[in-house]
Description:
242 residues; alpha+beta; five-stranded mixed beta sheet; two-stranded antiparallel sheet
Amino acid sequence: MANAFTGSVAMANLVQTAYDRELEFALRAAPMFRRVADKKPAQQAMPGSSVVFEIYQDLAQAITPLNELVDPDAIAAGNPTPVTVTLNEYGNSILVSNKLDLFSFTDVTAGLVNQVAWNLIDSVDLIVQNVMATTTQTIRMPSGGGNPTYGFGTTPTQATALNTLDATSLFNSKAVRLAVTRLRGNKVHPTQNSYYTACDQCPGWCWCGCCTDSRLQHLLHRPAGTCRGCSRGVPHHSWSGS
């Protein structure tokens, strides 16, 4: 008489699908834009719906030699420049039922708390990105190549229109050098040690550190994408900096 084996088919109810009780989170992009907006109130007078920052105006440079026998005339200080920042509230919430909390095979509350916290970071970064995308301080590469065009506030030279950019509007080192020169000329302080932050303004928002063009590989000092005085996410077509 042949042996009767007891296997997984005979006792199928004891063989079940196993789950890893520790859930992973989806890939997340590191926040990059909010670091540009790094100014906070230092001595806010009171709560309010907006905050006014005042900026001192420096004195005009004194380049005329003084006469040792004549006291210099006093000059009037400039009126500080106000900058108003309007405050808004943003956020999301998730309600969890007791049944889900009791029946789920993992600590679902901790996972949802993590998602809400990350949503805060991700949302603020997008809010800052949207403001930067509409800035007038831009540098763009025109269609067909050539020299970069720029627009800095009231500067007469205007940047190439965003809707005219195409596949031939290729980023090159001239745009980065121009941006760094203009930023330094306007006394803008770098946001990352000695580097400025670059942000793409072309449709698609490509963050590749100019590494898709093999001709520009020699411009990179390290994988993070430092290039001619800028760091991170140097774009292809147009960008604004801080």
